[in-house]
Design brief:
This protein folds into two domains: 115 residues, ATPase, nucleotide binding domain (Nucleotidyltransferase, domain 5), CATH 3.30.420.40; 109 residues, ATPase, nucleotide binding domain (Nucleotidyltransferase, domain 5, 2-Layer Sandwich). It contains eight helices and 15 strands. Strands 1, 2, 3, 4, 5 and 8 form a six-stranded mixed beta sheet that branches. Strands 11-10-9-14-15 form a five-stranded mixed beta sheet, sandwiched between helices. Strands 6-7 form a two-stranded antiparallel ribbon. Helix 3 packs across helix 8. The radius of gyration is 17 Å and the shape is globular. The protein starts with a strand and ends with a helix. The structure holds beta-D-glucopyranose (BGC).
Length: 245
């Protein structure tokens, strides 16, 4: 068992995870993300989550940033002060335990590969997570290629997440039909780049997969994520257990 923490734009969630089956062994705890979401404010919230969950072992932490050897390198939808911050070192000092830090979409993809929609697929697998931003996870024969940022590639004149984030449907009134058509074009592009066997579509919006799958015409399997809201927590725990990052 290990503990996973998922740092999101609106909530910081954590729970212990049984690594045999990827199930949470205790109901996850969610504390609203502090604003501004500076590293120190988020660290304090992470400390509260593990304290209230009465966890005293090692943890994995998923954050919405490129993370190289524990250091955050980007900050698209979080406070700019994360850039250059050694998150792993800071949290290890604060919490006095071993901490693994990784990108949130990489965490979700690790969880899906091990326990969810990606099980049994080898070769190239791409996962895209649609939320406030667009995250991505790339696997080759079961090995994660960390920090692939497909949401930030140029797409139809902008960065991809500017026109394909689920936020546009959830908060800004974009129709699911228009969004589905955009996602189809994005998947087509991803397919041309990587020729994956399967593309896993994640993020809260995948509960509406039935509403937009009719727009998806790309020539490979496209499947909704299976773990939904818990994927980040589960993947963070997997990373902590396997030192996958
Ligand atoms: C960030 C990614 C992150 C994704 C989902 C993007 O804006 O660049 O690192 O995985 O949002 O949170």
């Amino acid at each position: 068992m290990l503990f996973g923490v998922d740092v999101g734009g609106s909530g910081i969630k954590g729970a212990p995870v049984d690594l045999e089956d990827g199930e949470l062994t205790r109901k996850r705890l969610r504390i609203p993300t502090p604003h501004p979401a500076t590293p120190d404010a988020v660290y304090d919230t992470i400390a509260r989550v593990i304290d209230e969950q009465e966890w005293d072992g090692d943890i994995g932490v998923a954050i919405p940033a490129v993370v190289v050897r524990g250091v955050a390198r980007t900050a698209a939808n979080i406070d700019a002060s994360w850039i250059g911050t050694n998150v792993r070192r800071d949290l290890e000092r604060l919490l006095d335990r071993t901490v693994t830090v990784l990108n949130d979409a990489d965490a979700a993809a690790l969880a899906e590969m091990r326990y969810g929609a990606g099980r049994g697929f080898d070769g190239v697998v791409v996962m895209l997570t649609f939320g406030t931003g667009v995250g991505s996870g790339l696997f080759v024969d079961g090995i994660l290629v960390p920090n692939v940022e497909l949401g930030h590639m140029e797409f139809e004149g902008q960065i991809a997440e500017a026109t394909t984030a689920a936020r546009l449907v959830e908060d800004d009134g974009l129709s699911i039909d228009e969004w589905g058509a955009r996602v189809d074009r994005l998947l087509e592009r991803v397919h041309r780049m990587f020729s994956p066997q399967v593309i896993i579509v994640g993020g809260g919006i995948c509960k509406r997969f039935g509403d937009f799958s009719k727009y998806l015409s790309v020539d490979c399997d496209v499947v909704p994520a299976a773990l939904r809201n818990d994927a980040g927590i589960v993947g963070a725990a997997v990373a902590a257990a396997t030192a996958a990052i």
